[in-house]
Design goal:
By secondary structure, the chain is α/β, with parallel strands linked by helices. It is built from 30 helices and 18 strands.
């Protein structure tokens, strides 16, 4: 049985004495106060300062400096973290923050930064802070904002979360000296996001700060990193439709380069590009196919999508595998395949059936339409018509051969990602305005897309200079504006609280659209046209464990259904209220939102939902798309919760980073939650897929959902999981994660 620590005062004094000659009196008293606070907040014997004292002294040498001693203190606490004593990670975080704040105070004193306003003036002059903050807020407003800061919320951080935040997110000088505390970071982001508010602006600053500092909502990595800074690219991912022309392909690559420059990830749809061996200007066999072009974007984080009926598919499916011609490889891209319903229906019936691969350019030449521009029954009718047309050359393969290539690549590389295009487009609330061809790098975005078209090149004379002006039709260049609700930190069964926090998050994301720095004008035009946002979640497994819900249970499915219906209702309500306050997005008329088809397709027939449907039809919607669940990685570490929708990989493990060991513990691990944290690879994946299908009803875009396999899985078992996902209405599948496979996370989409 755990008891209080009887030797606490003695060990606290011993630790304080170690710093008596190296720390100023004020700092040493602060350290003593923190140690006393630790004793009070963590009274169990397993968190005794005796353990800390002993571990700490094992790190010391006669030559240890003050900085080394401080580092040894928090590192000792970190290494005491175990599955049996998980709260040491919170103790380690408090000691790490003491070290950080000690050095921060020294730097502030040296620069005479006595208040928040003076600090912002200094950072702005150093070009570390965007000048727009001082331009929009008065000195009095910024001093008022300073009163919102809650230092005690630093105690919410785990050691690994605080360590990551301090190393990567707080503002540092050009010589890497931090000049911003975590709470000042949250406040700076809040000031940026509320900057253009017309009414009660300081109230919104406080609300945004509170949701972020309580770790209830996390903004995506680009927003956390870049908000308040001079180059404020706040969006995570971008999606482009690559046209079938030399100019168009290189324009897409140029746009991609601009996006990458400012930290965004990219999804690129190559389904319109003609296949290898197709004709160019009537010369047969001249086209190099999609693989040659994909190799040009190999060195940066990009997902490349191709239809399962495209003639270059077999080579595409071997882009990352280790066998074959290396000249046809692109090991650093992330391939993804777009599947129509027909493919899965035929595969379910008989995998020995023939499947026909064709060139989209040849189809257009012969039939006068682009096959990829259709979906559902209409696509199926046209596909079968093309199969019968002798003018179109075909590459005949069995479904079994295609599936074998897909599964082999998935088991070896984790990719290709899966995009069920008919499911996506059937549920598209803006199908009246366009088509969705693919998703983004993390497979959670599903928005209308259209290729950029060159209209003309004209030679003009301007102020005596001869210039060449290229005129383009902007198409639809998709932008992802992401944030995540930390479900493990939220009272998900409290409807009124959830509506309030969702409303605040939706407003913050809507503001991102107008405040963003866009790397390319095409992104700005599309973002302002649709005003799309992607509110997602993290801490899903954390939430289930807190509520005593087993992953592999019907209770899980019912609970998820209720929680995500609550989130969706709150998000739609927030968006329609914003539309009443500001105005609807420009394409609202004719959408499923306006017609009520959105609600019909999801069987929302209760009195509450019917009232909301009527309200939406009258008031409009501020945002064309609302919900998208990104994978989250770094931001879930910061908020001390589980990543995205994923189950945990382990309850406890040590992660080595730059020579030090960082403890990673399942959130709120205790005897009460221990058995609800089942490892991802041991979970029956059909429950994960069924849960994804249940949630998908309430999510207008998609979800980053992973499938976890072991070496014991047969190819047939993996295929059955893909088939099950399609049957359950799952729109996309992210990675297939085997125990032996290390996959790369997208930092841009971490929200």
């Amino acid at each position: 049985m755990q008891t209080t620590d009887p030797t606490g005062i003695f060990n606290r004094n011993k630790l304080s004495e170690e710093f008596s000659n190296v720390l100023p009196d004020e700092a040493r008293l602060k350290l003593d106060a923190i140690l006393l606070e630790i004793q009070t907040d963590f009274p169990e014997i397993c968190y005794s300062l005796e353990y800390l004292n002993t571990k700490f002294r094992s790190f010391l040498t006669p030559q240890s400096t003050c900085g080394q001693k401080l580092e040894s203190l928090f590192q000792a606490a970190a290494e005491l973290t175990t599955a049996e004593a998980p709260k040491w990670e919170f103790i380690a975080a408090r000691l790490l923050y003491f070290q950080f704040s000690f050095h921060l105070k020294q730097e502030e004193t040296r620069r005479e930064l006595s208040d928040f306003y003076k600090k912002l003036v200094y950072l702005t002059r150093q070009n570390l802070y965007g000048s727009y903050i001082l331009e929009h807020y008065s000195r009095e407003e910024l001093l008022l904002a300073e009163t919102y800061l809650k230092a005690e919320r630093n105690n919410l951080f785990t050691f690994s979360g605080l360590d990551l935040l301090l190393k990567r997110y707080v503002i540092r000088t050009h010589d890497h000296i931090p000049l911003e505390s975590p709470q000042e970071m949250f406040l700076g982001i809040a000031l940026h996001l509320a900057m253009n508010e017309k009414n009660d602006r300081m109230l919104w600053v406080k609300k945004f700060y509170d949701m972020l500092s309580r770790l209830e909502v996390t903004m995506a990595t680009p927003t956390l990193s870049n908000a308040r800074k001079p180059y404020h690219q706040l969006s995570s991912c971008f999606i482009d439709t690559v046209p079938d022309s030399l100019e168009g392909i290189y324009r897409s690559i140029d746009n991609f380069a601009q996006v990458s420059k400012f930290g965004g990830g990219m999804g690129m749809y190559f389904g319109k590009v003609r296949a290898s061996g197709s004709n160019i200007r009537g010369f047969e066999g001249a086209a190099g196919g999609v693989i040659r072009w994909i190799r040009l974007v190999n060195d940066t984080a990009v997902a490349v999508y191709l239809d399962v009926w495209h003639r270059d598919l077999p080579e595409f499916l071997q882009l990352r595998t280790n066998n074959g011609d290396d000249r046809m490889k692109a090991h650093d891209v992330f391939p993804a395949v777009c599947y129509p319903d027909l493919f899965w229906k035929m595969a379910k019936e008989d995998m020995d059936q023939n499947w026909y691969l064709m060139c989209p350019h040849e189809i257009f030449q012969a039939k006068g339409y682009h096959l990829e521009d259709y979906f559902g029954e209409e696509w199926e009718r046209r596909y079968l018509d093309c199969v019968q047309d002798a003018r179109i050359s075909k590459r005949t393969v069995t479904l079994k051969d295609i599936i074998r290539l897909v599964l082999r690549s998935a088991a070896e590389t984790g990719t290709p990602f899966t995009f069920n295009r008919d499911t996506v487009n059937r549920m598209n609330p803006n199908g009246h305005a366009g088509m969705i061809y693919c998703s983004n790098l993390c497979t959670e975005i599903a928005q209308n897309m259209q290729a950029i078209e060159e209209v003309s090149k004209e030679v003009q004379t301007t102020d005596g200079d001869t210039v060449v002006v290229t005129v383009t039709r902007p198409g639809e260049f998709v932008v992802c504006n992401l944030a995540s609700l930390s479900l493990g930190h939220l009272p998900v069964t409290d409807t009124s609280y959830m509506e309030e926090i969702v409303s605040t998050a939706v407003r913050a994301l809507d503001n991102v659209i107008d405040l963003n720095f866009y790397p390319t004008p095409y992104a700005k035009l599309t973002n302002q046209k649709y005003r799309s946002i992607g509110l997602g979640v993290s801490g899903y497994h954390h939430m289930l464990a807190k509520h005593g819900i087993i992953w592999e249970s019907e209770e899980h499915l019912k609970f998820a259904d209720t929680v995500f219906e609550t989130i969706n209702y709150a998000a739609i309500l927030a968006s329609t209220n914003l539309a009443e306050e500001k105005e609807s997005y420009s394409l609202f008329n004719g959408s499923d939102w306006q017609s009520g088809a959105y609600f019909e397709k999801r069987d929302y027939h209760s009195e509450k939902w019917l009232a909301l449907q009527k309200k939406v039809a009258t008031q409009g919607m501020r945002n064309a798309y609302l919900l998208a669940v990104a994978p989250t990685s770094s931001t879930s570490i910061i908020s001390g919760t589980t990543a995205g929708l994923d189950p945990i990989l382990k309850r406890y493990f040590l992660e080595e980073k730059k020579g030090s060991m960082l403890p990673r513990v399942a959130p709120e691990l205790s005897p009460a939650t221990y058995w609800y944290y089942k490892n991802a690879h041991l979970i029956d994946q059909t429950y994960s897929i069924r849960a994804c299908g249940v949630r998908q009803r309430h999510i207008d875009q998609a979800q980053s959902m992973n499938i976890y396999i072991t070496n014991d899985f047969t190819m047939r078992q993996i295929f059955n999981l893909y088939l099950k996902a399609w049957e359950e209405g799952v729109k996309t599948i992210y990675y297939v994660r085997s125990k032996s496979l290390e996959v790369e996370e997208c930092e841009s989409c971490s929200s």
